[in-house]
Amino acid sequence: MTYKITNKCIACDLCVPVCPTGAITIIDGQRSIDSKLCNGCNDTIYTVPQCIAGCPTCDGCVKANKDYWECWFDTYKKCIAKLTNKDNYWEKWFACYSQKYSQELEKKRSSKVA
Ligand code: SF4
Ligand code: SF4
Known about the structure:
This protein is an alpha+beta fold. It has helices spanning 15-18, 50-54, 68-85, 89-113, and strands at residues 3-5, 24-27, 30-33, 61-63.
């Protein structure tokens, strides 16, 4: 999850030195967060995003919305994780599928013989 600085930013610069990844830069007076460097403060000693924690405004710094495909893949990965975490999910699915398939084949064979 990445974060971004909005036009509500009052340029106090409190967030710049506290970012553990150095993702916040000031270029031509504009503060911005490099999405390639921002890791949402995950894997750091902090439990909350430091840019938001210290920002004196309500929404000078906010979570950046993900694009459509990022959301799509997140949902897909969650669904797959749920399925694959079930014990023997795929083995059961295959056993059930192959049993039904065999039954249908047998029905067709019987109808041809009759
Ligand atoms: S969420 Fe953390 S890593 Fe990302 S810009 Fe804010 S302080 Fe830096
Ligand atoms: S702490 Fe908030 S108001 Fe200050 S520079 Fe960062 S985003 Fe802007």
